[in-house]
Amino acid sequence: MAADAPVLRLREISKSFGAVAAVQNVSFDLYGGEAHALVGENGAGKSTLVKMLAGVHRPDSGTVELDGVPVELNAPADAKAAGIAVIYQEPTLFPDLSVAENIAMGRQPLGRFKTVDRTAMLRQAEQLFTRLGVAIAPNRPARGLSIADQQLVEIAKALSADARVVIMDEPTAALTGVEVERLFSVARSLRDDGAALVFISHRFEEITALCERVTILRDGRHVSTDLLADLSVDEMVRRMVGRDLDALFPKQDVTPGAVVLSVDGLRRDPVFTDVSFEVRAGEIVALAGLVGSGRSEVVQSVFGVDPRDGGTVKVGGRTLKPGSPRAAMAAGVALVPEDRRQQGLVMELSIERNVTLPRSRALSRLGFLTGGSERRSATEWTQRLKTKYGRLSDEVGTLSGGNQQKVVLAKWLSMAPKLLIVDEPTRGIDVGTKAEVHRLMSSLAAEGVAVLMVSSELPEVLGMADRVLVMREGRLVAELDRAEATEESVMFAATGQEVSV
């Protein structure tokens, strides 16, 4: 039950980075005992707002009030002292310290001779995990913990500091369904204990399952704050993007052409075995299945990132050399990986350099890469994909997640691929950018590009694929045409029920 007076109040908060106004005059209230969703497209200002509350960025103007009293959050220590804790999508624990040491960092209990009381520290961690209803050994190293358990350690840290405002920034992006439900159980207990919970997610089903109130941002500005019970998902989408989405899955009907990709008996022990399939020009084929079924490993092996122990991969009738991404690229294969930050981009390099990396040799003259040719190519492709950025010379790490994904796509599309492999193409991006990515995939297929897609989102699989290939425990167990693919048929195959191959 929400408190009568807000715990935290934002009034006319603004923040700019150079000429880019990231947040403009945003105001809303957070109440204790309530989960409050913060939603908007990538680039809407959510992350900047969170970093200002965390003390990472200082607002250019506006005020933050705690219990009606203005506070200045000039550093992360100020935010912690004010009782504000942030749980990021990728937790930042010290890997070589124990779980208990991470929880107590900066506030270690001291014994008689002013040394750290390790017994008290372990006991405190045990009590916190008991309160959260989770079983994590306090004395184990943080290294090796799953993302889900790392987030629970971060929540325990927030509890140990008596945090009154807990911000969860895309906490479920890398979690399984079971881990998400466990996280939600913990989040509800925080809320019920009186904390003001801020939840940021692109998944509407999670927002409606957890939150009571929602604030919508668009282009750095506050659009509305409402009770979720008063809003439909369609209305939320319209407010987020400022327009009606004609279709989230704008699939064009295309008659498939010649076989572009032929995979026969592909095997990588013990990850997957005897995987065979084809993808034709103009066709979108989805690889579906549960996490751990081998989908991503198959496409990485096709592209040559991972080795293989048997089988053949042909593109346009030409057999690809195993374990050679260079050979795959030369044959016209492009791979948009699942983890764009670690595998798809060089975060310290500029936007233009990332876009042109695969074509740097083609853009060079006498062995030198000129800034003019690089900038012209990068400008063309970032504009075609409607990428939002300040300057092309900015580091790609300054972009929002959706715009980073567009840079990865621009990098590979500039090569005019025959086969485009996309692994989780819309993970962690907003609904408006999802529609743009889907429209792009559909138009590429209409132009004759063969598309192989890995996705964990069943609506995306069913909405975009001409055929669905279902994997289970490293084997291809079902092939479903678009007309026969349903959520039930895909899940039956993925979980071992009777479906004919």
UniProtKB/TrEMBL annotation:
Residues 8-244, 249-498 form the ABC transporter domain. It is a peripheral membrane protein. It is found in: Cell membrane. GO terms for molecular function: ATP binding; ATP hydrolysis activity. PROSITE patterns: ABC_TRANSPORTER_1 (PS00211), ABC_TRANSPORTER_2 (PS50893). Keywords: ATP-binding, Cell membrane, Membrane, Nucleotide-binding, Repeat, Sugar transport, Translocase, Transport. InterPro entries: AAA+_ATPase, ABC_carbohydrate_import_ATPase, ABC_transporter-like_ATP-bd, ABC_transporter-like_CS, P-loop_NTPase. GO terms for cellular component: plasma membrane. This is ABC transporter related protein. The lineage of its organism: Bacteria, Bacillati, Actinomycetota, Actinomycetes, Propionibacteriales.
